[in-house]
């Protein structure tokens, strides 16, 4: 206290106190306004993304899905489908499509990843729905189990997609596509959105951890070598038996024709 009293009446004491006070006030103001500034910047970027997505929607999607995504006679409503559904359908090239009466097929995407993200962001504003996912967010390589994923796939997916994930026929001319060569995020999004004839597997039915295991099994099956030779689509004994019968009967017919011609 004596030390402070000694310098309190110094001629530089008052200016120093003013400088310290102003510096403290400036640092406090900067710290208080830093977070809101970042939030405003993020909000502005999101608004720009949504506006871009709306423009893309009006040009390429509204003719079928309605100006406000309410749907029409030839296309379903997009209200409540969420960004995940858009990212899956557009990211796999299934949408947009010319003939909505046919089953959407996987093909080269029409829109870039940035345009797809913008379109998904806009549709997400129509009503709450499942959020889109990136490949980096789903850590299937680290957290998934190949053994558990194989069991889950056989119990929940194999009846449509085939026990080897090669796809299969459904009723009314529809089919379950192959899951081979599909991006992990699109597999995850398909499970949480249920595209076309596929059911929705909520987190209560198949937990997020189990979804990662299914993805890990699919990726393991993709890289599995065919030690027995040609896989023939890995659809089981039907194609193998058909091949044997075709070749066998063809060989028997050829022998019969040869013997008949030789006897003459």
From TrEMBL:
Indicate whether Repeat appears among the record's keywords: yes
Cytochrome c domain sequence ranges: 48-127, 144-222
What EC number(s) does this enzyme carry?
7.1.1.8
Q: Name one molecular function that GO assigns to this entry.
A: heme binding
InterPro entries associated with the record: bc1_cytC-su, Cyt_c-like_dom, Cyt_c-like_dom_sf, Cytochrome_c_Oxidase_Subunit
EC class of this enzyme? translocase
Coarsely, its chief localization is membrane
Q: Where in the cell is it found?
A: Cell membrane
Q: Which residues cross the membrane?
A: 242-261
Kindly state which reaction or reactions the protein catalyses.
a quinol + 2 Fe(III)-[cytochrome c](out) = a quinone + 2 Fe(II)-[cytochrome c](out) + 2 H(+)(out)
The record describes its membrane topology as: Multi-pass membrane protein
Sorted alphabetically, the Gene Ontology cellular component annotations on this record are: plasma membrane
Q: Does the keyword Transmembrane apply?
A: yes
Q: Which UniProt keywords apply?
A: Cell membrane, Heme, Iron, Membrane, Metal-binding, Repeat, Translocase, Transmembrane, Transmembrane helix, Transport
What is the name of the protein in this document? Cytochrome bc1 complex cytochrome c subunit
The source organism is freshwater metagenome
């Amino acid at each position: 206290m004596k030390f402070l009293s000694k310098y309190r009446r110094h001629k530089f004491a008052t200016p120093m106190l003013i400088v310290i006070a102003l510096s403290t006030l400036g640092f406090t103001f900067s710290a208080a306004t830093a977070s809101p500034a970042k939030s405003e910047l993020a909000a502005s970027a999101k608004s720009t993304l949504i506006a871009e997505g709306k423009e893309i929607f009006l040009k390429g999607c509204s003719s079928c899905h309605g100006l406000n995504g309410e749907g029409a006679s030839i296309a379903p409503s997009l209200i409540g489908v969420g960004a995940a559904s858009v990212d899956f359908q557009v990211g796999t090239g299934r949408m947009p499509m010319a003939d909505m009466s046919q089953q959407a097929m996987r093909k080269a995407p029409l829109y870039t990843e940035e345009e797809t993200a913008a379109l998904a962001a806009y549709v997400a504003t129509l009503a709450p729905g499942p959020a889109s996912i990136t490949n980096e967010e789903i850590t299937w390589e680290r957290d998934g189990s190949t053994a558990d994923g194989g069991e889950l796939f056989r119990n929940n997916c194999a009846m449509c997609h085939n026990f080897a994930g090669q796809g299969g026929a459904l009723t009314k001319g529809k089919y379950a596509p192959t899951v081979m060569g599909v991006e992990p995020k699109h597999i995850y999004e398909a499970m949480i959105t249920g595209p076309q004839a596929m059911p929705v597997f909520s987190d209560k039915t198949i937990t997020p951890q189990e979804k990662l295991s299914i993805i890990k099994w699919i990726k393991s099956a993709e890289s599995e070598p065919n030690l027995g030779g040609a896989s023939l689509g890995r659809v089981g004994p039907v194609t193998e038996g058909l091949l044997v019968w075709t070749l066998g009967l063809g060989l028997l017919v050829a022998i019969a024709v040869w013997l008949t011609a030789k006897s003459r």
